[in-house]
Amino acid sequence: MSLPPGFLDELRTRLSLTQVVGRKVMWDQRKSNQAKGDMWAPCPFHQEKTASFHVDDQKGFYYCFGCHAKGDAISFVKETENVSFIEAVEILAGEAGMKMPARDPKAQEKADRRTLLIEVMEMAVNHFRLMLKTGAGAEARDYLTRRGLDEAALDRWEIGFAPDAWQGLWDHLKAKNVEDDLILGAGLAKPSQKGGKPYDTFRGRIMFPIRDARGRAIAFGGRAMDPNDNAKYLNSPETELFDKGRNLYNHGPAREAAGKGQPLIVAEGYMDVIALSEAGFNATVAPLGTAITEDQLRLLWRIAPEPIIALDGDTAGLRAAMRVIDNALPLLEAGQSLRFSIMPEGKDPDDLLKESGASAMQTLIDGAIPMVDLLWRRETEGKVFDSPERKAALDKDLRTAIARIQDPSIKNHYGQAIKDKRWELFRNRPSGQGGNKRPWQPGGRRGWQATPPVLASTKGSMLASADERAQDALREAVILAILIRRPDMLDQVESRMERLDMVGPDHDLLLRCVLTSAHFGAEALEEALLNRVGGDVLDRLFSLSHVRITPAIRTSNDDEIVLACLTEELTKLEAKRGVAREIRDAEADMDALPDEGVTWRLGQAAEARNKALRSQTEDKTTYEVADNGSLMDREERDALDALLAQIDPSKGKSH
């Protein structure tokens, strides 16, 4: 939408920046001079106790001397309300009594439809709240009472109930003359596949309204009352209003509380947010049924520079914390990171509050650890590093993680912190070979052994060809197809899958969907795949001949066959890639590995490759030799040609 010349200038002159900002901050009366429009307050964009946020009302600009946030009234509304530029202008124009210029008809139509959808969502909120107070909601009320929520808390959080009826909400909205298209568009109902009336999305569930940063109802989260329901929690589907990867539960109230100095806490679910908020931790949010996405991380950093991730102390909670690290590393900036507060084993924040009170929770929040400490814990906990091979594996994993950091300064600090921790771990190890008694120091090298260089000819001869990439892609396809067909098997290989770099087309996106959604069941995974990847990609994956003939796909109900096939394919893929990884590692930082030389690395990689090839010769009658000298199944060859054409169109046949 284009604005006429002078519109924004007039808007800024009509507004008092002090009044706009004053809704979000508490002015420091000692430093501020209201008569001159010279105002100071703690910054609403980062946590602080001193008043370093300055507003110059005469110039119409603000600036924070702590986090360096700066801008005018429009940028302030845009950042604090999490809205677009035009939406910020609309909000301010309404306050200033200015009429917005006429919109493009299509844009106006879209805005009008969003307004109608939000109205329908509010009608649904009121309906569910009413249903909770009826006889049909008695069991749900009892459950909420056992969870410690009184009637006042239920009203504050607008909790409701969807009875176990196919068209309960549908009939209610139709009685109010709501159009079918709006009910379906809001994600409140789904069309029948049998030609009947659409049916309610939520049935037999306790309902939690999800509101955006401006307080508008955009979706619901529903907790199943039936303990045997496959989906314990169910969110609204993606709609024009709702993108679950770009929103946070309790976003608006948490942002306001964080602006007043409370630490921003990220919990795992709705009940954790409610329990923490009711206990006084008002700046608490939760992702919406998925692992924390990059977009949600950016939303969190708009609220506070160091959100505290407070996840459950069970295996799933720890896995979620580890995935957050991988998403956050590339996005780190100076003063912008995460801290982690892991609950006691087997407990969530709600359990801790009930058993030990708010003071125990405060102690955990105060003791939240930096992200680099949790990264180190992930790579070292429960492991023994009593050999050069194990130390090399640790170095490789840590270097891979640190390489994802984009900011050079932060990358250097992480590298130094890891070197310090490594020195602490290995400083009491036995002395080195050749009688050298000097302990290794961070950043140093042994005087008796220089790291041999990797010869250019050696590097060139070991590089993977496009044919090899295509064969890797075939194995990836089989692994992904198995996990999509049997998502319950992810627990067996999850840590290995998280470290797997994909080369096949669309395989990285498929992997991310599996890692983030498989634990919620087959139905949730299917929905995530269809929404994020699309049916065409899935059709191509399962149409590959090498996938179709895989025993784990043909007999997907046999746990033993499925697990054996999955682990075998994954092991072969990992082993085959050993050479290229070892060479990259050796090139990356020869001085960082005082215990191992490049010659040893390449020998290990070669042995890994030999093991992979030997494992493929168990039935020599069904294999033939490809042009590049590797063994290849005849069925695999046909599928390889199709993938090879996508990876490198200049290649013809692989044979």
Describe the protein's architecture and organization.
The protein is built from 30 helices and 17 strands. The strands form five sheets. A five-stranded mixed sheet has the order 12-11-13-14-15. A four-stranded antiparallel sheet has the order 1-2-3-4. Strand 9 (217-224) and strand 10 form a beta hairpin. Helix 27 (559-576) runs antiparallel to helix 29. The model is unreliable at 429-464, 589-598, 615-636 and 651-655 (pLDDT under 50). Its cofactor is Zn(2+). Residues 262-344 form the Toprim domain. Monomer. Interacts with DnaB.
Quick rundown:
It is built from 30 helices and 17 strands.
Number of distinct helices: 30
Instruction: Give the biggest sheet.
Output: 5 strands, mixed
Derived from helix and strand composition plus strand pairing, the structural class reads alpha+beta
Global shape: globular
pLDDT averaged residue by residue: 80
CATH architecture of the largest domain: 3-Layer(aba) Sandwich
Which band does the percent of strand residues land in?
Answer: 5-15%
The helical percent reads 40-55%
Distance between the termini: 56 Å
Number of domains: 4
Unreliable runs: 429-464, 589-598, 615-636, 651-655
- For the secondary structure, the number of strands is 17
Q: What name does the CATH topology of the largest domain carry?
A: Dna Topoisomerase Vi A Subunit, Chain: A, domain 2
Task: Kindly report the spatial arrangement of strands forming the biggest sheet.
Answer: 12-11-13-14-15
Oligomeric state of the chains in view = single chain
Rounded Rg:
29 Å
CATH level-1 class of the largest domain: Alpha Beta
